[in-house]
Amino acid sequence: EDEQIVAEIMERRFFPNQAYKTWEGFHFAGHEIRITEATDCYGAVVWPSALVLCYFLETHSKQCNLVDKNVIEIGAGTGLVSIVASLLGAFVTATDLPELLGNLQYNILQNTKQKCKHQPCVKELSWGIDLEKNFPRSSCHFDYIMAADVVYHHPFLDELLLTFDHLCKNDTVILWAMKFRLENENRFVDRFQTLFDLEMISNFPSLNIALYKAMRKDRMKA
Protein backbone atom coordinates (compact mmCIF):
# COMPACT_ATOMS: atom_id res chain seq x y z
CA GLU A 1 0.00 0.00 0.00
CA ASP A 2 2.86 2.35 0.83
CA GLU A 3 4.51 1.89 -2.57
CA GLN A 4 1.20 2.22 -4.42
CA ILE A 5 0.25 5.51 -2.74
CA VAL A 6 3.80 6.87 -3.01
CA ALA A 7 3.76 6.12 -6.74
CA GLU A 8 0.46 7.99 -7.06
CA ILE A 9 1.83 10.97 -5.12
CA MET A 10 4.97 11.16 -7.24
CA GLU A 11 2.94 10.95 -10.45
CA ARG A 12 1.58 14.40 -9.57
CA ARG A 13 4.98 15.87 -10.52
CA PHE A 14 5.86 16.50 -14.16
CA PHE A 15 8.62 18.27 -16.02
CA PRO A 16 8.51 20.53 -19.08
CA ASN A 17 9.51 19.09 -22.44
CA GLN A 18 11.90 21.95 -23.10
CA ALA A 19 15.12 21.39 -21.20
CA TYR A 20 15.79 25.11 -20.81
CA LYS A 21 12.66 25.68 -18.72
CA THR A 22 13.37 26.31 -15.02
CA TRP A 23 10.06 25.23 -13.55
CA GLU A 24 8.59 21.95 -12.32
CA GLY A 25 4.95 21.06 -12.78
CA PHE A 26 2.45 19.46 -10.41
CA HIS A 27 -1.18 18.36 -10.68
CA PHE A 28 -3.22 19.10 -7.55
CA ALA A 29 -6.71 20.40 -6.79
CA GLY A 30 -7.71 20.17 -10.44
CA HIS A 31 -4.98 22.55 -11.59
CA GLU A 32 -1.62 22.44 -13.28
CA ILE A 33 0.76 24.18 -10.91
CA ARG A 34 4.09 25.49 -12.18
CA ILE A 35 6.76 26.05 -9.56
CA THR A 36 9.96 27.99 -10.21
CA GLU A 37 12.81 26.67 -8.08
CA ALA A 38 16.29 27.82 -7.22
CA THR A 39 19.16 25.43 -6.55
CA ASP A 40 21.23 27.71 -4.33
CA CYS A 41 19.27 27.16 -1.11
CA TYR A 42 17.17 24.45 0.55
CA GLY A 43 14.10 26.64 0.85
CA ALA A 44 13.65 27.12 -2.89
CA VAL A 45 13.29 23.45 -3.82
CA VAL A 46 10.14 21.29 -3.68
CA TRP A 47 10.82 18.37 -1.32
CA PRO A 48 8.75 15.15 -1.28
CA SER A 49 7.18 16.05 2.09
CA ALA A 50 5.36 18.92 0.39
CA LEU A 51 3.88 16.51 -2.16
CA VAL A 52 2.73 14.19 0.62
CA LEU A 53 0.97 17.06 2.41
CA CYS A 54 -0.61 18.37 -0.82
CA TYR A 55 -1.85 14.88 -1.68
CA PHE A 56 -3.46 14.58 1.75
CA LEU A 57 -5.16 17.98 1.46
CA GLU A 58 -6.63 17.05 -1.91
CA THR A 59 -7.70 13.48 -1.14
CA HIS A 60 -9.14 14.39 2.27
CA SER A 61 -10.84 17.63 1.25
CA LYS A 62 -14.16 16.54 2.79
CA GLN A 63 -12.75 15.56 6.19
CA CYS A 64 -10.32 18.48 6.12
CA ASN A 65 -12.50 21.18 4.56
CA LEU A 66 -10.33 24.24 3.96
CA VAL A 67 -13.01 26.50 2.49
CA ASP A 68 -12.87 29.89 4.26
CA LYS A 69 -10.40 28.52 6.82
CA ASN A 70 -7.49 30.67 7.98
CA VAL A 71 -4.26 28.82 7.21
CA ILE A 72 -0.62 29.70 7.80
CA GLU A 73 2.25 27.76 6.29
CA ILE A 74 5.61 28.06 8.00
CA GLY A 75 8.71 27.43 5.94
CA ALA A 76 6.63 27.72 2.77
CA GLY A 77 9.67 27.61 0.48
CA THR A 78 8.46 27.51 -3.12
CA GLY A 79 4.84 27.81 -2.01
CA LEU A 80 3.38 24.54 -3.32
CA VAL A 81 1.47 23.66 -0.14
CA SER A 82 0.16 27.22 0.21
CA ILE A 83 -0.97 27.21 -3.41
CA VAL A 84 -2.86 23.93 -3.04
CA ALA A 85 -4.51 25.10 0.19
CA SER A 86 -5.56 28.31 -1.57
CA LEU A 87 -6.99 26.42 -4.52
CA LEU A 88 -8.99 24.36 -2.03
CA GLY A 89 -10.64 27.52 -0.69
CA ALA A 90 -8.52 28.59 2.27
CA PHE A 91 -7.30 32.07 3.13
CA VAL A 92 -3.56 31.41 3.28
CA THR A 93 -0.62 33.25 4.75
CA ALA A 94 2.59 31.81 3.29
CA THR A 95 5.69 32.59 5.35
CA ASP A 96 9.42 32.14 5.09
CA LEU A 97 12.74 33.93 5.44
CA PRO A 98 13.14 37.31 3.71
CA GLU A 99 15.54 36.00 1.05
CA LEU A 100 12.93 33.47 -0.13
CA LEU A 101 9.94 35.81 -0.33
CA GLY A 102 10.53 37.01 -3.88
CA ASN A 103 10.41 33.56 -5.44
CA LEU A 104 7.61 32.53 -3.07
CA GLN A 105 5.50 35.55 -4.04
CA TYR A 106 6.13 34.90 -7.75
CA ASN A 107 5.01 31.26 -7.55
CA ILE A 108 1.92 32.04 -5.52
CA LEU A 109 0.82 34.88 -7.78
CA GLN A 110 1.39 32.89 -10.97
CA ASN A 111 -0.64 29.93 -9.73
CA THR A 112 -3.49 31.52 -7.76
CA LYS A 113 -4.41 34.79 -9.48
CA GLN A 114 -8.12 34.70 -10.43
CA LYS A 115 -8.25 31.01 -9.48
CA CYS A 116 -8.89 31.19 -5.74
CA LYS A 117 -11.73 32.35 -3.51
CA HIS A 118 -9.20 34.16 -1.31
CA GLN A 119 -5.96 35.58 -2.68
CA PRO A 120 -3.15 34.31 -0.46
CA CYS A 121 -0.65 36.65 1.13
CA VAL A 122 3.09 36.28 1.66
CA LYS A 123 4.73 37.41 4.86
CA GLU A 124 8.17 37.23 6.42
CA LEU A 125 8.54 34.87 9.36
CA SER A 126 11.91 34.14 10.89
CA TRP A 127 11.26 31.44 13.46
CA GLY A 128 11.29 32.69 17.02
CA ILE A 129 11.90 36.34 16.09
CA ASP A 130 9.41 39.18 16.71
CA LEU A 131 6.52 36.70 16.89
CA GLU A 132 4.25 38.85 19.04
CA LYS A 133 5.05 41.95 17.00
CA ASN A 134 4.34 40.36 13.62
CA PHE A 135 1.71 37.79 14.66
CA PRO A 136 0.06 39.14 17.84
CA ARG A 137 -1.83 36.48 19.80
CA SER A 138 -4.78 38.80 20.35
CA SER A 139 -5.57 39.24 16.66
CA CYS A 140 -4.04 36.24 14.85
CA HIS A 141 -6.13 33.11 14.81
CA PHE A 142 -5.26 30.26 12.48
CA ASP A 143 -7.49 27.25 11.92
CA TYR A 144 -4.56 25.33 10.48
CA ILE A 145 -0.79 25.54 10.70
CA MET A 146 0.91 23.65 7.87
CA ALA A 147 4.54 22.66 7.62
CA ALA A 148 6.44 20.37 5.26
CA ASP A 149 10.05 19.36 5.86
CA VAL A 150 10.84 22.09 8.37
CA VAL A 151 12.90 19.75 10.57
CA TYR A 152 16.35 18.99 9.17
CA HIS A 153 19.97 19.78 10.05
CA HIS A 154 19.65 23.42 11.05
CA PRO A 155 20.36 25.24 14.37
CA PHE A 156 16.87 26.68 14.81
CA LEU A 157 14.87 23.77 16.21
CA ASP A 158 14.24 25.60 19.50
CA GLU A 159 12.95 28.61 17.56
CA LEU A 160 10.78 26.36 15.40
CA LEU A 161 9.11 24.86 18.47
CA LEU A 162 8.59 28.33 19.91
CA THR A 163 6.95 29.40 16.64
CA PHE A 164 4.55 26.45 16.64
CA ASP A 165 3.66 27.27 20.25
CA HIS A 166 3.07 30.97 19.56
CA LEU A 167 0.88 30.49 16.48
CA CYS A 168 -1.23 27.63 17.83
CA LYS A 169 -4.49 28.38 19.63
CA ASN A 170 -6.49 25.76 21.51
CA ASP A 171 -8.56 24.87 18.42
CA THR A 172 -5.76 25.15 15.85
CA VAL A 173 -4.89 21.99 13.91
CA ILE A 174 -1.28 21.43 12.88
CA LEU A 175 -0.63 19.38 9.74
CA TRP A 176 3.06 18.55 9.56
CA ALA A 177 4.91 16.35 7.07
CA MET A 178 8.21 15.15 8.53
CA LYS A 179 11.08 13.40 6.77
CA PHE A 180 13.19 11.37 9.18
CA ARG A 181 16.91 11.84 8.62
CA LEU A 182 19.29 12.13 11.59
CA GLU A 183 18.71 11.19 15.21
CA ASN A 184 19.20 14.73 16.53
CA GLU A 185 16.43 16.08 14.30
CA ASN A 186 14.23 13.07 14.96
CA ARG A 187 14.32 13.85 18.70
CA PHE A 188 12.45 17.05 17.87
CA VAL A 189 9.31 14.89 17.65
CA ASP A 190 9.67 13.99 21.35
CA ARG A 191 10.12 17.64 22.29
CA PHE A 192 7.15 18.59 20.15
CA GLN A 193 4.99 16.14 22.08
CA THR A 194 5.63 17.94 25.36
CA LEU A 195 3.36 20.72 24.05
CA PHE A 196 1.11 18.99 21.52
CA ASP A 197 -0.94 15.84 21.17
CA LEU A 198 0.48 14.17 18.09
CA GLU A 199 -1.26 11.68 15.82
CA MET A 200 0.38 10.02 12.82
CA ILE A 201 -2.24 10.06 10.07
CA SER A 202 -0.09 8.74 7.21
CA ASN A 203 3.22 6.93 7.03
CA PHE A 204 5.39 6.29 3.98
CA PRO A 205 8.40 4.13 4.95
CA SER A 206 9.76 4.10 1.39
CA LEU A 207 10.15 7.88 1.63
CA ASN A 208 10.98 8.02 5.37
CA ILE A 209 8.12 10.51 5.66
CA ALA A 210 5.31 10.65 8.20
CA LEU A 211 2.33 13.00 8.16
CA TYR A 212 1.15 14.20 11.55
CA LYS A 213 -1.89 15.95 12.93
CA ALA A 214 -1.42 17.82 16.20
CA MET A 215 -3.29 20.03 18.66
CA ARG A 216 -2.36 21.72 21.93
CA LYS A 217 -2.24 19.47 24.97
CA ASP A 218 -3.95 22.01 27.24
CA ARG A 219 -6.89 22.73 24.93
CA MET A 220 -9.40 20.73 27.01
CA LYS A 221 -8.52 22.60 30.20
CA ALA A 222 -9.04 25.90 28.45
From TrEMBL:
Signal peptide: none
Pfam families, per database record: Methyltransf_16
Family matches, as SUPFAM superfamilies: S-adenosyl-L-methionine-dependent methyltransferases
Record organism: Agelaius phoeniceus
Domain of life: Eukaryota
GO MF, any single term: methyltransferase activity
Single biological process term from Gene Ontology: methylation
Protein name as it appears in the record: MT21E methyltransferase
